[in-house]
Write a structure and sequence with these properties.
Elements: E1 5-14, E2 17-25, E3 29-34, E4 40-44, E5 48-56, E6 59-66, E7 71-77, H1 82-93, E8 97-99, E9 111-115, E10 118-123, E11 126-132, E12 136-141, E13 145-150, E14 162-166, H2 177-188, E15 200-209, E16 212-218, E17 222-226, E18 231-235, E19 239-246, E20 252-265, E21 268-278, E22 282-286, H3 291-298, E23 305-309, H4 310-322, E24 326-327, E25 341-345, E26 348-354, E27 358-362, E28 367-370, E29 374-381, E30 388-395, E31 400-407, H5 411-420, H6 451-473, H7 475-481, H8 484-494, H9 496-503, H10 508-538, H11 551-566, H12 572-585, H13 588-655, H14 657-662, H15 673-683
Parallel strand pairs: 5-8, 19-24
Antiparallel strand pairs: 1-2, 1-7, 2-3, 3-4, 5-6, 6-7, 9-10, 10-11, 12-13, 13-14, 15-16, 15-21, 16-17, 17-18, 19-20, 20-21, 22-23, 25-26, 25-31, 26-27, 27-28, 29-30, 30-31
Length: 684
């Protein structure tokens, strides 16, 4: 039998909400890790008292009871997993996994049993429902009634807020069943009552979230924030983590308390309590306990009289009461030597702290991201200026965080940190554009091979080569076809009749008529060279050597059919992804073999290009000579035509000098209808 059992997509019931995570059973005990908060519940095998298997809403569930009265519920198991779990419990925990189904009769009267931190309403021997008493926020009594009120669950759409029990009177003297019921509930309920004196009080502390000045009263089981407007009571059981972070100015300190569930004010939820301290502020603290009680409760972690910096005293007291470690920045140092990076998140500017196991941003809004919930990070070009860049984080749940306006001097330090923590780095489409500003960005995809990105790179190189080849080969053609002098002559001839007709009128309409053909001529001018350029790009020399493929593309071409046969019906996209995974998993020796093939192909290509360029140069020189010869012939023919035209013009003008001199010119507007035809016929 296996020493461990692991289950994914298991749900733990905590304060009325179902939190998903991973459950692991081993010889040592049971471990559950919450996917949302990262909180780990560890139950030692020696503490387990009972295990119950039963049918629940989410399939089947496992209820574990410990010897000290705690109850843990895990749902989401399949029915077929019972035998495996039962055998594991017998072999490693020496417990019989009992099957107990809930009663579904629908009766509303029965017996209430209190066991540890659980209230069970039973009918006969079968439970109808169970209430963890830690969910109870208030308990009130009536004549024959007990009312239980529950903590509100923010994650659920519908929350159970109240349950009332009718307790019938008994004949026993001196025992009030209603009061006995209420006392059993209150002894285990999570009811915060400020009874007795506080252990210590910190006056007028500056709080950034929620904003204001607060007195902090430290009680044995909860923390009381007392402000001018609001009061908050925070049980220590809701504290997840503690952070102590130095400000960039080296004069202040942040103390951050992570809470789950958060404290509430109306519709606002505060998941983090952030206090700001000055390093210069000192305090002398005396605990409201005698020395024996301090020693017995805190075991040397605190003393009755303490003195030092205010932030040290607060963090020390909180660590002792909450019994959690304080997280501080690790080895990261930015460009300026600080342990944080100045950036903006959403609309506010703040500080991003790279920690040993995550990132935390303070202060508005505060964000904590663990490494184990990060899918990938991305270095992106700044949207407004090249002096900065953006740092994007996407979680496995699909949530994206963008920290913008980071100075580009911080890039090297941050990239090295992310690389050292082995986080996936993935630049999505911005890599080529950012190459000029940040050369280091070219290496950001080395850790994780992306088949799609490789393909895009190859296609981009081919397009770039095509553009360069076509512009080099068609330069003379486009220059020759786009001759400004010749274009102007063609336009003048095309609109010559319109120009002569409008020249004599001299009104505003003639100017408009002259401008219109000029616009048409401009359109013709712009389109001609573009057509030629497109034709020249299309007509790339088919005899030119093809660019060599990369090592990955050579390997993909050789193994494409094998991948298809191993995965019948695979799509092109999935094939590319699968090929990327196989290439990434390939050993270094095998990759070197394909690198050598790619290097040989590159050498062959360079050799072929040299031979091709020598041949193309001799051909281009021949075509240049033939073009020059043609131009010379065209010029000679044009000169002869111009001479003939000039000679014929002089002859016609010599034949009719008298006629032109004797008659005055009349335009058509000034010739009357009766003399126009008769006069002309007489002269003829």
């Amino acid at each position: 039998m296996a020493d461990t059992l692991e289950f994914n997509e298991i749900y733990q019931e905590v304060k009325g909400s179902m939190n998903d995570g991973r459950l692991r059973l081993s010889r040592q005990g049971v471990i559950f890790k919450n996917s949302k908060t990262g909180k780990v519940d560890n139950i030692q095998a020696s503490e387990l008292a009972e295990g119950v298997w039963r049918r629940v809403a989410l399939g089947h569930g496992l209820k574990l009871l410990t010897k000290n009265g705690h109850v843990y519920k895990y749902d989401g198991f399949r029915e077929s997993e019972f035998d495996k779990l039962s055998d594991f419990f017998k072999a490693h925990y020496r417990l019989e996994l009992a099957e107990k189904d809930l009663c579904v009769k629908g009766w509303n009267w029965g017996t209430v049993r209190f066991g540890g931190q659980l209230l069970s309403f039973d009918i006969g021997e079968q439970p109808v429902f169970e209430i963890p008493l830690s969910n109870v926020s208030q308990c009130t009594t009536g004549k024959n009634e007990v009312t239980l009120e529950f903590h509100q669950n923010d994650d659920a759409e519908v929350s159970l807020m109240e349950v009332r029990f009718y307790v019938p009177p008994t004949q026993e003297d001196g025992v009030d069943p209603v009061e006995a019921f209420a006392q059993n509930v209150l002894s285990k309920a999570d009811v915060i009552q400020a009874t007795g004196d506080a252990i210590c009080i910190f006056r007028e502390l500056q709080c950034l979230t929620p904003r204001g000045r607060y007195d902090i009263r430290i009680y044995p089981t909860f923390l009381h924030l007392h402000g001018k407007t609001f009061d908050y009571k925070i049980p220590y059981t809701t504290v997840l983590r503690l952070f102590l972070l130095p400000h960039k100015d080296q004069r202040q300190m942040f103390f951050v308390i992570s809470l789950d569930p958060p404290i509430k004010q109306g519709q606002t939820r505060y998941h983090f309590l952030i206090l700001l301290f000055s390093k210069d502020e000192d305090i002398s603290l005396t605990l409201n306990m005698n020395e024996e009680e301090v020693e017995k409760r805190f075991e040397g972690r605190l003393t009755k009289n303490m003195s030092g910096s205010l932030y040290e005293m607060v963090s020390r007291v909180m660590k002792a009461l909450v019994n959690r470690k304080i997280t501080v920045p690790g080895n990261f140092q930015g460009h300026s030597g600080a342990q944080c990076i100045t950036c903006s998140y959403k609309a506010s500017s703040g500080l991003l702290y790279p920690l040993e196991r995550g990132f935390i941003y303070v202060h508005k809004p505060p964000v904590h991201i663990r490494f184990d919930e990060i899918s990938f990070v991305n270095f992106a070009r700044g949207t407004t200026t090249t002096r900065s860049f953006d740092f994007e984080i996407e979680t496995k749940q699909g949530t994206q965080y963008t920290f913008s306006s980071i100075e580009r001097e911080e890039y090297g330090k941050l990239f090295d940190f992310v690389n050292a923590k082995k986080l996936n780095i993935k630049n999505r489409g911005l890599k080529e554009g950012m190459k000029q500003s940040y050369d280091e960005y070219a290496d950001s995809d080395e850790d994780q091979h992306d088949a799609y990105l490789e393909r895009m790179k190859e296609e981009g190189k081919i397009r770039e080569e095509n553009a360069n080849d076509s512009s080099d080969g068609s330069g003379e053609e486009t220059d020759e076809s786009f001759n400004p002098g010749e274009e102007d002559d063609d336009v003048a001839e095309e609109f010559d009749s319109n120009a002569s007709a409008s020249s004599s009128s001299g009104d505003g309409d003639s100017d408009r008529d002259e401008k219109k053909p000029a616009k048409k001529a401009k359109i013709v001018k712009d389109r001609k060279p573009r057509k030629k350029q497109l034709e020249s790009k299309k007509g790339k020399d088919p005899n030119a050597p093809k660019r060599p493929m990369s090592a990955y593309m050579l390997w993909l071409n050789a193994n494409r059919e094998k991948i298809k046969s191993d995965h019948p019906g695979i799509s092109i996209t999935d094939l590319s992804k699968k090929a990327g995974e196989l290439w990434k998993a390939m050993s270094k020796e095998k990759k070197e073999e394909w690198d050598r093939k790619a290097e040989d192909a590159r050498r062959d290509y360079e050799k072929a290009m040299k031979e091709y360029s020598v041949g193309s140069k001799s051909e281009s020189s021949k075509t240049d000579r033939s073009k020059k010869k043609k131009k010379k012939q065209e010029k000679q023919m044009k000169g002869k035509v111009e001479k003939k035209g000039a000679a014929s013009k002089s002859l016609s003008s010599a034949k009719s000098p008298a006629k032109n001199m004797s008659e005055s010119f009349k335009s058509k507007e000034f010739v009357s209808s009766d003399e126009s035809s008769s006069g002309e016929s007489k002269k003829e």
